[in-house]
Amino acid sequence: MLDFLGNLERTHYCGELRAAHAGQIVVLMGWVNRRRDHGNLIFLDLRDRTGISQIVLDKELIPDGHAKGEQVRPEYVVAAVGKVRLRDVDAINPKMETGEVEIEATQLLVLNDSRLAPFSPSEEAIQNEEVRLKYRYVDLRRPEMQRNFRLRHNITLAIRDNLSQQGFLEIETPILTKSTPEGARDFLVPSRVHPGEFFALPQSPQIFKQILMISGFDKYFQIARCFRDEDLRADRQLEFTQVDLEMSFPRQETVFAVVEQFMAAAFAAAGVTLATPFPIITYDDSMRRFGSDKPDLRLPELTDVRPAFTDEALATLQIDPALPVVAFRIPGVGELSRKEREDNHPIFDLKKGAKFIDDFKRLAKGFPEAAVKVRELVGAVEADFVIVVAGDPAHAVKASDTKFPGRLSEREINVYSAAGNFRTELAKKYADRHGAFAVTEKVVQEANDQSGGKCVDGSEAFRPIWVTDFPMFEYDGPTAKWMPAHHPFTAPFEADMKNLVADPASVRANCYDMAMNGMELGSGSIRIHRKDVQQQIFQSLGISDEEARARFGFFLDALEYGTPPHGGIALGLDRIVMLLAGAPSLREVIAFPKTAKAVDLMVDAPTTATEQQLKELHIRVALKS
Known about the structure:
Blueprint: E1 25-38, E2 41-48, E3 51-58, H1 63-71, E4 77-86, E5 101-112, H2 129-134, H3 136-139, H4 143-165, E6 169-170, E7 188-190, E8 198-200, H5 206-214, E9 219-227, E10 239-248, H6 252-269, E11 272-273, E12 280-282, H7 283-290, E13 303-304, H8 311-316, E14 325-330, H9 338-344, E15 354-357, H10 360-366, H11 368-378, E16 385-391, H12 410-429, H13 431-434, H14 438-447, E17 456-457, E18 464-468, E19 473-476, E20 481-484, E21 511-516, E22 519-526, H15 531-540, H16 545-558, E23 566-572, H17 573-581, H18 611-616
Parallel strand pairs: 3-5, 6-9, 11-17, 12-18
Antiparallel strand pairs: 1-2, 1-4, 2-3, 4-5, 7-8, 9-10, 10-23, 13-14, 14-16, 15-16, 18-21, 19-20, 21-22, 22-23
Helix pairs in contact: 4-6, 4-17, 7-12, 10-11, 15-16
């Protein structure tokens, strides 16, 4: 028989009680985390979002409550009334924040029962993620998940407060809008009122925030929900949240300063001190030094080791002398066995036209001077694992491989990116040996230690960097056309405008990314604010005046009404929280995420629509047999 709550009101949360509360009468409510029956004494660990308190049901003192205690099981919802008392010295639990006290119950109400859950929230790790997502309401009760979402709340609040203090106004933009080019597929929403026509869910509020600058709001921000129909991975979901902002009359440095302020505030809310200002690197330098446009600064850089090899050595090793020859080291890994090296081969991307040398004993036999020089150039000690990555001359040269003045060629980029990807993947694989990544977990753990009152220095664990001077265009070999490397509202540098038609490869975009620990956190740019320049960009991309008018007519019109220079950025809030939570995937910091197959297992979505719904929307479904 279940009890009614009646007029009983909670006085404290389970995780709040300390020795100072001894002697007080309290009312606690929550879920039974564990139950231990010691005959005349039954101990219940009562859990809510703040922590756990131990409830003592004494048969002599509270026979009715003791009888109920015999019936309750984990995840039953109960209310306990009783006096806080100090535990005996030998019964103190130092692992619990409430471990010095317990509640001597005088009343126990069983408010609801529970089916046997597929897993217990008291478990530290549940291996089957699909079960976790199917029963997300149970999974979210786990202390780890509760901590993640308290952290997310604190980070979001800190960002919102900081941007408000910097003079930004929070303004919402539409969810039902028009399709714009953002680099991914749109989610389309059919219109019942306008048969055959569709809204699109926003991939970002890009055009709307630019229009807000035209409208004179000067500084806008939004904790914006965005939607992209793309393949999922650990750091990507179909629907996500970004910190979106735009401002009038900025330079790049203005945007950087704003972002660094709110990032420092967000990290402080998580108990971590983030060093500012962030370092800045150009795209070309980032590729040369890290093999990535989202570099992980926690690892040693790529090193140019071409001087270590003679032309004869390169020919014998079948290395293309026209392409980069780089090496990197993974600290503390040491020399690997042949079997270990072979197991690493599938990680390397052979499609990029690069090859690698990881057997230094064999290299030293044929080219001893080169082997010694390579290790010397990368600064390797005996315990470091060193790999050389170079161009493969057997890789066919394509039309798009042409080296254009002022930028790296596609083949050069491929070698650098193959090396960069190999570097990060091997570092992850051998993280237990080198410890470069473990420091992040250590800082997160220390920052979330409730006994500490000060921020923990995160300067080594969290390594942000700005990447600038991206190419404005990318050459598409199959179509022999230049394509936008970013969205077409990004402004080119003024000095490069004259080359838009004659030398598009040399044109740099006035855009910037912010990366941290090998993950892109945000991307932004100074925007085009003049209609003639916007039209010129459309023309250089092969977008006709008619197509531009059909897709962006309202925006082109707005540009004619006194548009100020403006720019902004959008940072992934989910990714920021993921880093600070020390979580392996976004699914740990999004309350109701989708699986890698884009399915919500809890609500069983997506589903088919009824014939009546389809009829109202003037839609007929035609499935392939």
